[in-house]
Amino acid sequence: MAISDPMLICGGAGYIGSSFCYCLKKEGYHPIIVDNLSKSDGKVVSDFEFYNYDIGDYDKLSSLIKRRKIDVVFHFSAFIEVSESVLYPEVYYENNTAKTISLLKACIDSGCRYFIFSSSAAVYGIPDEIPIDEESLCYPINPYGKSKLMIENVLQDLEQKKRLKSVILRYFNASGALPTLETGEAHQPESHIIPNLLDVALGRKEYFQIFGTDYPTYDGTCIRDYIHVEDLASAHLLSAKYLLENNKSEIFNLGSEKGYSIREIINKVEEITKKKINVIEGKRREGDPPVLIASSDKAKKILKWEPQHNLTSIIDTAWKWHKKRFG
């Protein structure tokens, strides 16, 4: 059975959402983008059918879903900055939780059957064991992670009542650029490590700041699992196919299963860009766990998902895209 087309991509003008749209287009699908452009410049939307809607606008979303007979909705419309969520938790609960609930109501009331939710490894908080699998307890330590977990709980309740089937995808650190260079990572403001390092390499920033050098890790800096955005995109398409074929909700981690410290990422960026990165050391940020590394065995087994990119590929594609856009 084929996935119903078109598919609705909420947040499709952003980094991961737009990358997914280009991957869908390459596979012959017709993605429809909904985005309020609050966190993106909208440069990619001219290539797709686009509606400048907020996901909290129930009337517009329900009308669109009914009119276009949307059967699968992908949700990428989240605010993602951990430190910002600590400062302004009400903003994150409004956008990531309240507005998403409005979107879910629009889906249910309009006859949409399937929902793919972009969640986060932040739902785990500080894990008891590494690597983290889907059975690990969820104790998020920042409002961003809490806002994601709330929607996970709503989706599981909807599954129990047979009102909406969903796949929850817990990302680890999305990174890299599409090898074709249509999209890459650039947030407003930018807080992610790889694009910030590349900004220094290009001379767009004077230095890169490490937030915390006294973590209980082998070099004192945080360790994270980085997954290429094209590998994330393939997992989303496989998730939609899984829902259609099995009509069963699931939760999957999406990560590379390898952890790299901040200092290791700096060294790899210097190696690939051939640029020396000016680094200063600062204090820890509130809400940052020391180590997050995924177990993606479940996604590999059930979805037959296999990541194709390693850290070198992640930084190499990101560097090429960064030079194309900002160089």
What attributes does this structure have?
globular, seven-stranded parallel sheet, 327 residues, alpha/beta, four-stranded mixed sheet, 10 helices, Rossmann fold, 13 strands
Strand and helix layout:
Layout: E1 7-10, H1 15-26, E2 31-34, E3 49-51, H2 58-67, E4 72-75, H3 82-87, H4 89-109, E5 114-120, H5 143-160, E6 165-171, E7 173-175, H6 193-201, E8 208-211, E9 223-228, H7 229-246, E10 250-254, E11 259-261, H8 262-273, E12 279-282, E13 291-292, H9 297-302, H10 311-326
Parallel strand pairs: 1-2, 1-4, 2-3, 4-5, 5-6, 6-10, 7-9, 8-12, 9-13
Antiparallel strand pairs: 9-11
Short description:
The chain is α/β, with parallel strands linked by helices and about 325 residues long. Helix content is about 40%, strand content about 15%.
Your description of this structure?
By secondary structure, this protein is α/β, with parallel strands linked by helices. It has a domain at 7-176 and 227-255: 3-Layer(aba) Sandwich (Rossmann fold). Helices cover 39% and strands 17% of the residues. The protein has 10 helices and 13 strands. The strands form 3 sheets. It has a 7-stranded parallel beta sheet with strand order 3-2-1-4-5-6-10, with helices on both faces. Strands 7, 9, 11 and 13 form a 4-stranded mixed beta sheet that branches. Strands 8-12 form a two-stranded parallel ribbon. Helix 6 packs parallel to helix 8. The protein starts with 6 loop residues before the first strand and ends with a helix.
Helix/strand/pairing class, anyone? alpha/beta
CATH architecture annotation of the domain at 7-176 and 227-255: 3-Layer(aba) Sandwich
Instruction: Just give the CATH class of the domain at 7-176 and 227-255.
Output: Alpha Beta
Q: What radius of gyration results from the CA coordinates? A: 19 Å
Please state the average pLDDT score: 95
Tally the helices. Answer: 10
- N- and C-termini, Cα separation: 45 Å
How are the strands of the largest sheet arranged?
3-2-1-4-5-6-10
In the CATH scheme, what's the topology name of the domain at 7-176 and 227-255?
Rossmann fold
Based on Cα principal axes, name the global outline: globular
| Number of extended strands | 13
Provide the succession of SSEs: EHEEHEHHEHEEHEEHEEHEEHH
User: What kind of sheet is the major sheet?
Assistant: 7 strands, parallel
Strand fraction band? 15-25%
Low-pLDDT ranges: none
Helix content: 25-40%
CATH superfamily of the domain at 7-176 and 227-255: NAD(P)-binding Rossmann-like Domain
